[in-house]
Amino acid sequence: MKPALLEVMRMNRICRMVLATCLGSFILVIFYFQSMLHPVMRRNPFGVDICCRKGSRSPLQELYNPIQLELSNTAVLHQMRRDQVTDTCRANSATSRKRRVLTPSDLKHLVVDEDHELIYCYVPKVACTNWKRIMMVLTGRGKYSDPMEIPANEAHVSANLKTLNQYSIPEINHRLKSYMKFLFVREPFERLVSAYRNKFTQKYNTSFHKRYGTKIIKRQRKNATQEALRRGDDVKFEEFVAYLIDPHTQREEPFNEHWQTVYSLCHPCHIHYDLVGKYETLEEDSNYVLQLAGVGSYLKFPTYAKSTRTTDEMTTEFFQNISSEHQTQLYEVYKLDFLMFNYSVPSYLKLE
Question: What is the pTM of this model?
């Protein structure tokens, strides 16, 4: 059975959930998003005055006010994903007394494409390298044509893409209202294992070993050798999990973006995302975005499969040695991501 169909079936069984996770409050208030008051509709909620590219329809028009009268199965699926995010945010805000507002510094993950009126919130370990390559093609004005010709390290150079925090507040609000906003998500624990494997088991990631590995070993490993404390290159997954659930870690500084929650990176309860793509249906969802942007006829999302990709089976193995207490605590950290993006509690978890 196709992943998209399974997702629809799961969504039809989901009830309203009241979440216990509270939002932090910001001292500095710069601007306020009314995303949660934004009508979520199957037709164009923006009216007919959307700012369009010359001689063409904007992605928002293509999404909310398609030329054909009948909505496709794909459009219905994405409406259900939007509804899931909205419902989860509303359930959470009902129990949370403080509304968090965003500042420009919260928007550094939102990549802007002026030419095609797109905003993409990138989430590490969810095909963000290839999506950044795509965004470089879209914003390069002819400089690039094949995304796979762009080296991976070049795609991650911040100067190659413009992010929303670089605009003035009026410009930010205009783009949030007028551009099509999208993100891609992944099963939270599969993404977490992928981050661990990439950053702590690869010998070339010495910067992560020095910055995080040494700290994790110092806090979580009894009788650590001096070499381990110095190198930080042999962090065990159990130690990584213990580090993540340690209250001291969360008080000290925000999580690194590779294991930060999607909820905290992209702020979907404050920013109304028009499309939520999934890693499990990556090619289909990505090409739908490109179709809406009007470039689908000549630009396709790369289809090659990585042989080293982290799978569900691999994730299950990594969690075998995690105690039920630590599994429960870790699930609480990522609970909003599970609920908001309709991921079931993994069958391998032993929650207390």
Answer: 0.85
